[in-house]
Amino acid sequence: MEMKPEDLDIIKLLGEGAAGTVRKVLHKPTGLIMAKKTIGTDPNPKVQRQILRELSFQKTCNSSYIVSFYGAFLEDGDTTLSLCMEYCEAGSLEDIYKRARDLGGVIGEPVLGRIAESVCKGLVYLHSQRVIHRDIKPSNILVTRKGEIKLCDFGVSGELINSIAKTFTGTKYYMAPERIQGAPYAVQSDIWSLGLTLIEVSQNRPALPPPGQPQLSIIELLDLIVRQPVPVIQGSHISKECRNFVAVCLIKNPRDRPGPGRMLDHPFIRKWEDVPMDLAGWIKEVWNWK
Ligand code: ATP
Ligand code: MG
Fold first, then answer.
1. CB 6: neighbour CB atoms within 10 A?
2. From ligand 1's centre to the CA of 37, what distance in Å?
């Protein structure tokens, strides 16, 4: 089905990022609730057509570890690009860990195990479609009402990546050392970002910069990622399998860092993959849903 701006009613604002704004919307013809992300776009019609063409590929993505994509269109006199995707009721892992922090809790290891497994399976799927995510971080991992964990905001459109990069001012905390040193993106770079994500979600604060040195310039931060010892996941509730998984994610040399397929064989994933977990119940508790 073709997505059209006039078919959508805005319900509420969900969040704002460096490049876009996300709103909860109703798609009137189908009655489906969706999330609509709007991004300011390159004014060149050729570039715009290329972006829309590249994005249309995402409609064919079909995995329970990937946020479904319904379609994209230009609006506001072709000044903004809107992307319509599956609405994930429980929000992002960033929303969830901040909520856990406000409630005085932390996300425990079993859930971390499920997050690691879901992200690796999502990355394996994307890789099978020749897509590298490029922006793994807690705000780009979403959770549904059922407790499913899914990836969003991945790099399907090279043209869109370029046009956002021109104006990009966001964080670079999650960038792998090889990227800082100018090497091309590879699946292993996403695994580095997964390591930092697991630390952040488990400790209720970003893994970098390390606590105690908050005011780093961007150059100092990039130097830290390339040259200083990597952060470790801490806490007496964390098993040695989990600690090792994160340490493997954060191997600095990309040639020694496994891709998502091999990470799925790690003892940390094995430890939790067959343990039944009521993630829907967990989410209900986190958001205090009836
Ligand atoms: P950045 O722009 O730095 O990457 P971000 O990922 O938080 O940050 P957006 O991708 O614009 O920025 O998303 C903003 C917020 O909107 C997210 O943090 C999340 O809370 C919410 N959000 C995004 N997509 C969805 C979705 N499909 N369903 C539900 N909530 C969503
Ligand atoms: Mg995002």
1. 7
2. 8
**Checking phi first, is residue 134 left (phi over 0); if not, alpha (psi -120 to 50) or beta?**
left
* C-alpha of residue 18 to centroid of ligand 2, in Å: 9
Catalytic residue among 42, 95, 135, 153: 135
64, 44, 55: which is closest to 82 by C-alpha?
55
Question: Is residue 87 in contact with ligand 1, taking CB distance under 6 Å?
Answer: yes
For tokens 């990622």, the residue is: 225
Direct distance between the N- and C-terminal alpha carbons of the chain, in angstroms, rounded to an integer:
34
Q: Is 95 a catalytic residue?
A: no
CA dihedral angle for residue 168, residue 173, residue 175, residue 180, rounded to 10 degrees: 80
Query: Does the beta carbon of 15 sit less than 6 angstroms from any atom of ligand 1?
Result: yes
What is the CA(35)–ligand 1 centre distance, in A? 9
Sheet holding 80-86: strands in order across?
8-16, 20-27, 32-40, 80-86, 69-75
Whether 17 is in the pocket of ligand 1, judged by its Cβ within 6 Å, is: yes
Check pocket membership of 35 for ligand 1, CB cut-off 6 A: yes
| ipTM entry | 0.98
Do β-strands 69-75 and 8-16 pair in parallel, antiparallel, or remain unpaired?
A: unpaired
| Residue 115 CB partners (closer than 8 Å, separation 6+) | 93, 141, 149, 197, 198, 201
Model pLDDT for residues 91-136, shown as the tens digit of each residue: 999 999 999 999 999 999 999 999 999 999 999 999 999 999 999 9
pLDDT, one tens digit per residue, over 146-194 is 999 999 998 888 888 888 776 665 567 899 999 989 888 889 999 999 9
CA distances from 123 to 73, 93, 130, 204, 247 (A): 26, 17, 10, 24, 19
Mutate to test the pocket of ligand 1, among 11, 22, 89 (most ligand atoms within 8 A of CB): 22
